[in-house]
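step: validate -> pass
step: tokenize input -> pass
step: predict -> running
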Amino acid sequence: MKPKIVLITGFGRSGSSLINMLISKRINSVDVGELRFLYERGYINNERCSCNDYFRECNFWDGVIKKIPVDDPFEYSLLSKKTQRNRSFFTSYFNWFSEDDEKYIGKEKKLIDSILNNSSSRHVILDSSKVPVRACLYYKLREHYDVKILHVLRDPRAVSYSWSKDVPRPETDNKENMHKFSYLESSLLWVGVNFLSRLLSFKYKDDYKMIIYEDLCKNPVSVMDSVESFIFPGGNDSLNNSVFHSISGNPMRFVDNVDIKLDENWKKNTTKFKNIIPSVIALPYYYYIKVKN
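step: predict -> pass
step: emit ->
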């Protein structure tokens, strides 16, 4: 059986880190967080892994990178950004891969193999990178891996509120905050990223599944049962020996147990004027996708 890569797509602040954590509690897997940031936030910035060790001091990542030495992490960080921009989506979607794409894909193949060989969880890698074009790059490696796409969708009003807040990044010892977007920026990006993520369903069909964040919070057992069946259609009988070494993502990665509850703080903490922006720009598409799902 080929190893599986489960890629979570969708716009940030939609619950990808939570879903990764829930999957890893059910399925023998290795949760690497947002793998596309490995070179920038790991090699270059030496930020904390979810195990609380700094990247260069983490035994897991030390074992991984020893097998794939990187001469110039700045080059690969730049390559990761160049190959995974939203405007590069359609060229990769139609299999028009550039020389940079091919170079990056080759490096990711070595990285993924090293991650699998360095963990006790050699069945599934959980990658919450979210950018839709990454799915197209992964499918270039489908001869070696079984690629599954989980598209996470959340109410754009809640997402816009989340992007407007000051959220410390514990991986930097709280010296930095997570990036912020205005309500207009986040609404436009929400539509764009989810539109591209939805297009993946037409090309990859049975390897694509959408999860509605609100449904997950209201009925987590049922939703996660469906996710497990999606990843392992024939049933999952492997013992759970999951590995947690997430290199980037939501601060909840540093907490052992997270309560699953619907976060609706946006309803009481957002002005009606600000809510108009995502309501007009993104909410109609949200309801359209929910109906079509």
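step: describe -> The domain at 4-292 is CATH 3.40.50.300 (Rossmann fold).
step: cleanup -> pass
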